[in-house]
Amino acid sequence: MAARVAAQPADPEPVARSRQFPFRFLAAYRAAPSLRWAYPLKRALAHSLAARLCW
């Protein structure tokens, strides 16, 4: 189940559609209770930054 949840923020399309600001993903990364979520949240942060730079 955790793998399914972690796959969504690592996918660039849902992150771009969410239109979340990158600082939201950074805050989630910093508040994550375990390193299990570090990689997907770092990817989401990168996708969010890329989506913002394309505007």
Q: What does it look like?
A:
The chain has helices spanning 2-10, 12-18, 22-31, 38-53. The longest helix has 16 residues, at 38-53. The protein is mainly α. It starts with a helix and ends with a helix.
List the helices and strands and how they pair.
Blueprint: H1 2-10, H2 12-18, H3 22-31, H4 38-53
Helix pairs in contact: 1-4, 2-4, 3-4
Task: Spell out the key features of this protein.
mainly alpha, 55 residues
Task: Note the run of SSEs as H and E.
Answer: HHHH
First and last CA, distance: 34 Å
**Count of distinct strands:** 0
Contiguous runs where pLDDT drops below 50 for at least 5 residues = none
Q: What portion of the residues fall into strands of 2 or more residues? A: under 5%
Approximate helicity band: over 70%
Distinct helical segment count: 4
Biggest sheet record:
none
Shape: globular
Q: What would you report as the Rg, rounded to the nearest angstrom? A: 11 Å
Mean pLDDT reading: 82
The structure class reads: mainly alpha
TL;DR of this structure?
This protein is an all-alpha fold and 55 residues long. It is built from four helices and no strands.
